[in-house]
Design a protein that fits this description.
By secondary structure, the chain is of the alpha/beta class. It has one domain: Carbamate kinase. The chain is 38% helix and 19% strand. The protein contains 8 helices and 11 strands. A 9-stranded mixed sheet has the order 4-3-5-2-1-6-10-11-9, with helices on both faces. A two-stranded antiparallel ribbon has the order 7-8. Helix 1 links the parallel strand 1 and strand 2. The longest helix is centred in the middle third of the chain and has 25 residues.
Length: 236
């Protein structure tokens, strides 16, 4: 295996099935459970930062008249809903989990405590981080980079619907070409929108490689974990 401790950034939209009208699709949660079991069987220590865009986005709330700070707080609470749904599904699959939140809500989850999170990982538990950083104006990308740095993750895996980083959006531009590997400086100079600037800078400063991959191709995350030719890796 190429990595040991991984931080998976999972968007809220990854749990959504718009065709079925489901904000949280049980079949997608079941698929995540299968993939996590395969990773754990190969020795992975898994932490997850989950977004809340399938339920509520702070920016969308601002456009609807909610002030940004309140909207971001609502979005952070949405991530906790997703974290609890993911926890329930994983435990149904026989995977031990803990949810830790940046906003204190002890009746439903542990508060984020770095040493406790690392101990859970060492014991083979999946740790799901909810409520972002606990602060408005920071995305869950920033939360993922922050938590990856704090738990000494070997890699930050960003789950997407495409198989890596392209020169342009491959959905709208058929001439877009895919990168197998790219450096942080190249990504910045080409203005590739991999993560928000704060998150990207934090990964670069702490030398945490970022791998962007297609999460919806089952087994792809295992290939990334093994260091096989999958996704696009950003590093020094």
């Amino acid at each position: 295996m190429k990595y040991k401790r991984i931080l998976l950034k999972l968007s809220g939209e990854a749990l959504q099935n718009k065709e079925k009208g489901l904000n949280i699709d049980p079949d997608i949660l079941t698929s995540i459970g299968r993939q996590f079991k395969a990773l754990i069987a190969e020795g992975a220590e898994i932490a997850v930062v989950v977004g809340g865009g399938n339920i509520f986005r702070g920016l969308a709330g601002e456009q609807g008249g909610t002030d940004r700070t309140t909207g971001d707080s609502m979005g952070m609470l949405a991530t906790v809903i997703n974290a609890l749904a993911l926890q329930s599904s994983l435990e149904n699959a026989g995977i031990q989990t803990r949810v830790q939140t940046a906003i204190s809500m002890p009746t439903v989850a542990e508060p984020f405590i770095r040493r406790k999170a690392m101990r859970h990982l060492e014991k083979g538990r999946v740790v799901i981080f909810g409520a972002g950083t606990g602060n408005p104006y920071f995305t869950t990308d920033s939360a993922a980079a922050l938590r990856a740095s704090e738990i000494n993750a070997d890699v930050l895996m960003k789950a997407t619907k495409v198989d890596g980083i392209y020169t342009a959006d491959p959905v709208t531009d058929p001439t877009a070409t895919r990168f197998d590997k790219i450096t942080y400086s190249e990504a910045l100079s080409k203005q590739l929108k991999i993560m928000d600037a704060a998150a990207f800078s934090l990964c670069m400063e702490n030398d945490i490689p970022i791998v962007v991959f297609n999460f919806f191709e089952e087994g792809e995350i295992l290939r990334v974990f093994r260091g096989e030719d999958a996704g696009t890796k950003v590093s020094h």
